[in-house]
Specification:
single chain; mainly alpha; 2 strands; elongated
């Protein structure tokens, strides 16, 4: 009898979990699929535009900066050594250069928001973010 009650309780809990997922979230995840380079760039630019309200000239400059950065990242990934500190220093240098260029493109108010957005990203689990080692 205890086994039947336990099994019924487990089924109810499992069903509640399944029903908690909204169709919208499951459809969104299913439709997303693998993200390619162009999609990633578009998403980054859209996010910045939403947060910073970029004008057309700024959009073009930021897009060019992102494209250049993506090419540099690919090159750095190919040349990565076994020395983690050396790799980290190369990526940190690239991040510093990007921030300097963004400061030239954005207004002071926009750059302040941009800096705050980057602080909020924090380290990524299982990897690195903002130059910090992940958990």
């Amino acid at each position: 009898m205890k086994k039947v009650v336990f099994l019924a309780l487990a089924i109810i809990l499992f069903a509640g979990n399944v029903l908690a997922q909204t169709p919208q979230s499951t459809e969104r995840n299913r439709d997303r699929g693998p993200v390619n380079r162009e999609q990633r760039m578009k998403m980054r630019l859209e996010r910045l535009n939403q947060q910073l309200n970029l004008n057309d000239e700024q959009k073009k400059k930021v897009e060019a900066l992102f494209n250049d950065e993506e090419a540099q990242m690919s090159k750095l990934r190919e040349q990565q050594s076994d020395n983690r500190e050396q790799n980290r220093a190369a990526f940190e240098k690239m991040r510093t250069e990007r921030n300097a260029k963004m400061k030239e493109i954005l207004t002071p108010e926009q750059f302040s928001k941009y800096t705050e957005m980057n602080k909020n990203m924090g380290p990524r689990p299982g990897g690195m973010g903002n130059g910090q080692q992940g958990n």
